[in-house]
């Protein structure tokens, strides 16, 4: 699993998913580059796929430089 620096701290995929979700998740995939810039600060955005529950899979997005985060829920 790939760890990344987010806002000056090294995070695991599970910790990144928790930052996006706001609570613990069941499982998380590897962190990847999202190939987009943060809409708030222009910083690099990374993504992680995770399962917040046994019936849901979500892709979360988090800026590496500021507090901005989002997910692909409709």
Automatic annotation (TrEMBL):
It holds the Pfam family DUF5795. It comes from the Archaea. This is Putative RNA-binding Zn-ribbon protein involved in translation (DUF1610 family). The lineage of its organism: Archaea, Methanobacteriati, Methanobacteriota, Stenosarchaea group, Halobacteria. It comes from Halorubrum trapanicum.
